[in-house]
Amino acid sequence: MASRTLAVWQNRKIVGHLVRRDLKVKYQNSILGYAWSMLEPLAMACVYYFVFGVVFAATGGARQAPGGPDAPGGYALFLLSGLLPWMWFSAALNDAPKALITHSKLITTMKVPREIFPLAIVQTKFVEYLLTWPVLLVFVFALGGQTGWNFFWIIPAVAVQLVLSLGVTLLLSSINVLLRDVERIVRILNRVLFYGTPVIYPMFRVMEVEALPDWFKALYAHNPLAGIFQMHHAVWYASEAPPASVLWATVGGSILVLLIGYVTFRRLESAVLKEL
Amino acid sequence: MAEPVIEAKGLGIKFATNRRRKRSLREMFIHGTKRDPNRGAADFWALRNVSFTVTKGECVGIVGKNGTGKSTLLKLIAGVLIPDEGTVTVRGKVAPLLELRAGFNDQLTGRENVHLVGSLHGMSPETIQERFDEIIDFAEIKPRFIDTPVRHYSSGMKVRLGFALISQLEHPIMLVDEVLAVGDKSFRNKCYDAIERMLQNQRTMVLVSHNEGDLKRFCDRGLYIRNGELVLDTDIKGALDAYNADTKAEIAERKKKDDGKAA
């Protein structure tokens, strides 16, 4: 594994070229370019704000930001701080199955460590996520969001998310070459995970529901994504900081996914190359 | 004697016929080494027990019928397929002239693609900048088209641009897979000259072709592959003679069969 990691590192320039190409292709054919990557999460934020912040709040099921509607930033900032990193994860998840297939011509003619193609996808989406930060900051100031030491939650949040998305991308990209069903599964998974993860609502809301059995709550809290998004929220709402058990589950789970993804990728490599 | 540049030892690769590829998934999850008795039946060995060495500066031609594993062999040397048996060791960087349009992105312009694919193959930005005009000139692409997206190019233009770019690589080993068949006559002549120029400076080349003229022109050694096995490793003339003899025998056989049917 160490030698392969080194080989990937030596080819990091190629990853850079692939990332730049993907961004270039994405932005140059549209007039609004960069604005598109912001318009989508903003539009989604408006929809969710309307449904959960306005309609449900009026009928008594308010999904408010932690600390009540008066908390700094309010529900709008809470939505954005979850939706922007979610776009990163979901875009990577969506493109993961196609990571190797779209580059089949390159892979079958050029000798490079094949891992760089999934890696390039994760990086491209990460850059797009970074590009959303200026807009997020505008909202932070406009809505009066507050942070302090808890701002540093952003570091583990991003690091763990990188590990998890890389693992998922490695896993899905290799399996999908052999079984194209993966593409379909991913579309469903994307939906399920979105609502099954505290992205647009705070985690404690789920924990407070008495009707839910304990095993379900445990399962819910130890989904690696749950911890990641709690950390993203904790940047602006200190009360959202994940408890130790959730934190360990998310770190351990993400590393486990990366290991599984990597081992699968290596074991299927020979079969994948024949199939491409 | 110098260390061989390409060294193949007992090389073999098998492909799954029909839908056996699902098995590789199952094997992975259930048990890596467990084998079932009728496993071998559905696998097809595209190449088996192929061993040879190529020393620096040699130009080797591979001949054989369609579907006998010539291109597979090139891919194994290029490292884009992993052998199921044996090993192949390549010492030095490889310039793959296998699929000339590989890596071109239809949305990007010719100029952007030259920079992208050039750097994917390990050329530095300075080198590309320096040789850019030469590449465009060689590819016979009019300057006003170079900033047009590649999707508007004709297929000839794409292949010419691909060849012009990859022939600029200075890697010591070249793998050529019938690309000489592309383009019109005048471009083909240019390709020949370019390859001859590349063959100077002790570069090594492995060429797959059905064109006897090409093979005789460039190669001094020939490998004849029949049904996935290396049957002859000799000078190019010997390999071609053996291939032609086999082809003749096959045609004669077929004729006899047809005659038998007619009678």
UniProtKB/TrEMBL annotation, chain A:
Top-level taxon in the UniProt lineage: Bacteria
GO cellular component, one term: plasma membrane
ABC transmembrane type-2 domain residues: 32-268
Listed Pfam families: ABC2_membrane (PF01061)
Signal peptide start-end: none
GO biological process: lipopolysaccharide transport
Membrane protein topology class: Multi-pass membrane protein
Annotated TM spans: 42-62, 74-93, 126-145, 151-173, 185-204, 246-265
Localization terms from the record: Cell inner membrane; Cell membrane
Keywords of the record: Cell inner membrane, Cell membrane, Membrane, Transmembrane, Transmembrane helix, Transport
GO molecular function, one term: ABC-type transporter activity
Family, as annotated: Belongs to the ABC-2 integral membrane protein family.
Protein name per the record: Transport permease protein
Organism this protein belongs to: Thermobifida cellulosilytica TB100
Automatic annotation (TrEMBL), chain B:
Record's keyword terms, sorted: ATP-binding, Nucleotide-binding, Transport
Pfam families in UniProt: ABC_tran (PF00005)
Record has Transport as a keyword: yes
Protein family (similarity comment): Belongs to the ABC transporter superfamily.
Protein name: Sugar ABC transporter
Domain annotation ABC transporter: ranges: 25-252
PROSITE patterns: ABC_TRANSPORTER_1, ABC_TRANSPORTER_2
One GO CC annotation: membrane
Keyword Nucleotidyltransferase: no
An example Gene Ontology molecular-function term: ATP binding
Protein's organism: Thermobifida cellulosilytica TB100
